[in-house]
Amino acid sequence: MTVTTPGGTSNGESFAYSDSLPPKLVAVTPQSARTGDTIVIFGCKVNRARSVAFGRRYCRPRLVPCSGGER
Predict the structure, then answer these.
(1) pTM given for the model
(2) Distances (CA, A) of 42 to 8, 9, 10, 22, 55
(3) How would you classify the pairing of strands 8-9 and 24-29?
(4) Does residue 70 have a pLDDT over 50?
(5) What's the pLDDT score for residue 67?
(6) DSSP-assigned letters across all residues of the chain
(7) Using one digit for the tens of pLDDT, what is the confidence trace for 20-59?
(8) Does residue 58 contact residue 50 with C-beta atoms inside 8 Å?
């Protein structure tokens, strides 16, 4: 990767970009729940989830868009 400005072009730095990187979990709330409870998962690329597993139990995620200026 390089950056170019009117003053010239920077030295190069290694940089890798991929749309296929796996999701990264940051936080889950609450810390425990029962069947039927709502669980909120925070992380990167979790909006693309097709399934969520709690041990051997799978559930289908329901996407709730963020409000405000989140990206």
Answers:
(1) 0.57
(2) 40, 38, 36, 14, 18
(3) unpaired
(4) no
(5) 60
(6) ---EETTEEPPP------TTPPPEEEEEESSS--TT---EEEEESGGG-S-EEETTEEE--------SS--
(7) 778 889 999 999 988 888 888 888 888 778 888 888 888 8
(8) no
Evaluate if residue 9 carries a pLDDT over 90: yes
Q: Please name the residue that has the structure tokens 């709502």.
A: 38
Q: How far apart are CA 23 and CA 25, in angstroms?
A: 7
Closest CA to 55 of 30, 29, 35, 40: 35
Q: What are phi and psi of 10, to 5 degrees?
A: -70, 170
50 token code pair:
């097709």
